[in-house]
Fold:
Amino acid sequence: MLPRTTTERTCSGLRKCTLTAGLCGLLLITTMSTSDANPSADPETIEQRVTALLSQMTLAEKIGQMNQVNASDDDLSDHLREAIEAGRVGSVLNQVDFDTVNELQRIAVQESRLGIPLLVGRDVIHGFKTVMPIPLGQAASWNPDIVREGARVAAREAATSGINWTFAPMIDISRDARWGRIAESLGEDPYLASELAVAMVEGFQGEDLAEIGTIAATAKHFAGYGAAESGRDYATTNIPENELRNVYLPPFKAAVDAGVLTLMASFSDLNGVPATGNEFLMRQVLRDEWDFDGFVVSDWDSVRQLAVHGLTENDRESVYEAVTAGVDMEMAGESYLYNLEDLVAKGRIDVAIIDVMVANILRAKFRLGLFENPFTDPTDLPAIAHDHALQTARKAATQSAVLLKNDANVLPLSMDKLRSIAIIGPLADAPYEQLGTWIFDGDRDLSVTPLSAIRALVGDRIDIRYLPAMENSRSKATKAFDEASVIAQDADVVLLFLGEESILSGEAHSRADINLPGDQAELVRVVRETGKPVVAVIQAGRPLTLTNIVDKVDAILFAWHPGTMGGPAIADLLFGVESPSGKLPVTFPRMVGQIPIYYSQKNTGKPPSPETIVHIDDIDAHAPQLSLGMTAFHLDAGYTPLYAFGHGLSYTEFDYRDVAVNANEIRMGETVTISARLKNAGDVGAAEVVQLYVRDLVGNVTRPVRELKGFRRVHLEPGESVTVDFELHTDDLAFYGRDMQLMTEPGQFHAWIGGSSETQLRTEFRVVEND
Ligand code: BGC
Structure:
């Protein structure tokens, strides 16, 4: 018999523990030390270890691996200890005290029969203690590098608590700003979301999952959750398969290709079959088509909710549906634990199915190196909120903010010319609110608010007067507005800090009205009346309808919920230390009734144009027209958004020209290069996100009027020019057609390059069949 491997490590400052890893888990690694050959990295070895371990497990132990339990209590309950010891728990979530996590792991590896370590999960969505901008904000950076680094920082900080698995990234395509979880998403576009999803997975998981400081990622929520009817969280989704494949699934496919270890099934009902019981999604697409070999976790209690949806009669039938559909692990609920054995005994579920599911979970544990290294020593990792973490958060916040408008170049503010500034509004000094949704562990004491950052930046050079004017963003009390007016009157410029407090977005926090909440619009009106220049800095978890204030302010800097370092980032942007470079990852509607509005719409048979639309106020009451344009528009909103996808201004002027292709015609399998000349024609150095859009003019299913196919962040000094080129292979033009097969069709394509989805600089090329 092979000897057992013993690892001795200091698990905490208080206790020294010797870990003797369980027998089976280590049978196959005993001949190598983890330092010279990492068994967690070799797929063949892992498969052998999985098989060996599985062969020794009882059915009850297998089902135990499929069970994830909430362990958020400060004190370890006897119930939990016993369950882990008995092999009834494969994973815990929501325990972040590393001593407690180490104790849980100790029970698992030393006291359970097979010594299988635990997966320790947590929602580390956009940072742990140091908080990055909300994911939707990070998406506005269009910068995979900063997104990757933000996730890496979060992973390292989370790992100090013993967390080895995060339930992120959330990559649900979101085209409805009413939905509270749009904040957690990477926006409306499959290409942008896919690129950033990959970056996040890489950031969390690193190059070697077994390394200290990397954690498993979860691509969630599989799938279609973002299409909830009317943006009401958890509501039904109806997504035709073709649209599902072309729009909602690509980010998941990209995450799977990038090696994401887990996926989470969505709460939502997809075309009549809730995702948690959806075999098409989890078996056909995920396993058969994509060859995913990680595991799928349910959402919180979503297995038992199959009965609430009305798909099943009771827990046992819900378990049958979820297992049959391919949910490998149940988060909370414990219905697998109490029903699966019986379903096997009755011959309804084959134990071979369970073996595959448990193998998926064990494979993940081996890849994470948990059998070698289940314990956490925080001193192995960088300190929480160390300088690099804070600088990453600051850079991410800086690159995320989008300058929506800037009339008469009111921004940047001049340190030399200004004498006094009025800072007004509920979100100027709100350390918690600036962190946004999903910040279980976010440390508000680390937050640097805009007010304190501006004060620090200007010192005593400019007189600053501050008034929150509202208790919070929802407040309807206007009694402080007179004072706001007086303060504004005395200032050279007014900075209005508006938006949504953090509780107004996130899970179950949907809104039907997405105007600025409370009486903020009235505050804008009052301040505007002073005649002073007004700059609105908006922090929010979603796009807002800003139509009612847009003409009453001179500039709008949309900062999302910018996280820990939001203050310094905003201060730098306001004073021109940095030039804004964020671009919208989601369309801003003029009014809520336009939703869903997104740039990649279909043309329709009656496409609108400025000439064909009529405004409701212009209908002649005395000679009513019978026909009002006969195109696809709203009488009261037209057809354009307030701000388009990809929009974002800078303090410099970027001049695009010479959009061209290197070949007018390419064959299948070839590549076309599309390029443009970009010049910084202004007088400050700045970054621009150059965007490439394509339209496939004719398809066997209709194609969007534009689709993002490439983007690049470029920094140019004043006067500097560069040629930016994008290579497109014919595979990059592929889409799912009527028969649900991915294919590129021959035909004519238009291509645009520019600084937003509204760019008009166009070229074209043709794809022809090979002879
Ligand atoms: C959310 C998931 C989250 C889980 C665990 C659920 O309510 O939908 O996204 O990961 O809770 O906290």
User: Anything to note?
Assistant: Residues 616 and 636 are 5 Å apart (CA to CA). The chain is about 25% helix and 20% strand. The pocket of beta-D-glucopyranose is lined by residues 123, 167, 220, 299-300, 507 (CB under 6 Å). Residues 351-367 form the longest helix (17 residues).
